[in-house]
Amino acid sequence: MTHYVFPPAPTFGIGSEAFTYWQNGFTNDELKLIIDFGNSQIPSKSSVGSGVSGGMIPNEKSSEISWINLNNNSKWIYDKIIHIMMSLNTQFYQFNLYGFIDQIQFINYEADENCDWHTDLQNQQPPRKLSFILELSDPKDYEGGELQIINYKDPLTIRKEKGLAIVFPSFSLYRVSPVTKGTKKIIVICATGPAFK
Questions:
Q1: CA torsion sign, 34 to 36 to 42 to 45?
Q2: Tens digit of pLDDT for each residue in 91-136?
């Protein structure tokens, strides 16, 4: 497995932002290329756990997932994600990050599919610390499928926008509500680092 290593970053504690976003980081042609990469892989059904209290509580995640591996053809995608994540991390979070140990997840939600409430901070070492989601689909192509992140006690609904990149701490509880019509496509990847103290 290829690891993508981040440059060192200063650590000043956990940021207070529930999520941050980056617009226009990818062109429409680049978004189409990412979709083509994802569609060319063999998908499988996915499932998640909440990671609550150190355990895995099964949640509904009805969707198809495939992987965009790091190679010469996909390196530009990883490079752009690195730039966005490091820029937002430096400005808002100042997490100490190692890099990627997972590959990019390409997730396809059809009608009646969703991803229930969960966190990306699972029982793995090194722990995931910062999560990245890129919206690939035009909101006109689907209904439902809202990305929601819990900030303290109230869920925040993130606006739907093709090409919008959303970055948030991996301990955040979030979900993708059921898609009621059409197809929603996203990519997801998490950066790891030393454990939170």
A1: positive
A2: 989 999 999 989 999 999 999 888 999 999 878 889 999 999 999 9
First-to-final CA distance of the chain: 28
In a domain, 84, yes or no: yes
Q: How far apart are CA 80 and CA 70, in angstroms?
A: 13
Inter-residue contact 137 to 162 (CB < 8 Å): yes
Q: Residue 195 corresponds to which tokens in the numbers above?
A: 């454990």
Written as six digits, the tokens of 40 are 């060319």
Helices (H), the chain: 28-39, 75-88
Q: Side chain identity at 138, as an amino acid letter? A: D
Range of the domain at 93: 17-192
Domain CATH for 33: 2.60.120.620
Tell me the two tokens of residue 159.
């606006």
